[in-house]
Amino acid sequence: MDYTKWSSKDLAQQLTNLGFSAYARNFRVNEIKGCHLPNVTEDHLKEMGITKIGHRILLLKRIRQIVDGETPKPVKINAQDSNPSSRPSSNLSSAPPIQQEQENNIPPRIAQRRQLQQAQQAAPEPQMQIQQKMAQQLQQLNQEPAKEPSSGRTSKIRYPSSHSSREQKETFSSQEPPPSESSGDGEEKVTCQYCGRKLPPDAAKRHIPVCAKIRGKTAKK
């Protein structure tokens, strides 16, 4: 058989018969015919996408045998060992990406929002800084509690319980209203031996024990 009369399709079929079905498409796509076989080099095989060194050596050896008129022996090349780029593309590659399909099904409002967000992200840096500052200020205003208006009244100073009790004892006699000098019922007044005050009998009974405690039971001379 005269290899010089092979078309690119015939050459691809001969390579398939020799076990190079994974690379037959590379020769057909690049329109390599039988008349080109004497000029095929390893660099040409690299340009066609055959990256496996061992496969390139086998191909060149079989091509030389064809050119020399010998009958080459078929080889066994696993499909997994062949070049990924040399395999024919499947129908799935023509399908649009999943992300593109999802974007086509997005409602117009959501698409507009995404466009606005992308435009904000692509805004110049100074504008982004201003927006960030404004957002921080709004956040601070929302977090600050409302201040109560000042009524102008000073808060009362609260003393300890011991201080207040001592003050109450010292001012007990002053808090008690002084008895009237003249008694309408003509009762005899009793003089307190601790402070010298003159009180009605009933008032004296209440006053003298308290006055004795306050003044330490020191009788007034």
Automatic annotation (TrEMBL):
Q: What keywords are annotated for this sequence in UniProt?
A: Metal-binding, Zinc, Zinc-finger
Q: Where is the composition biased (Low complexity)?
A: 82-97, 106-144
Q: Where is this region: Disordered?
A: 71-190
Q: What is this protein called?
A: Uncharacterized protein
Residues in C2HC/C3H-type domain copies: 188-217
List the InterPro entries.
SAM (IPR001660), SAM/pointed_sf (IPR013761), Znf_C2HC_C3H (IPR049899)
A Pfam family (short name) is SAM_2
Q: Name one GO molecular function term.
A: zinc ion binding
Under SUPFAM superfamilies, the record lists: SAM/Pointed domain
Q: Where is the SAM domain?
A: 6-69
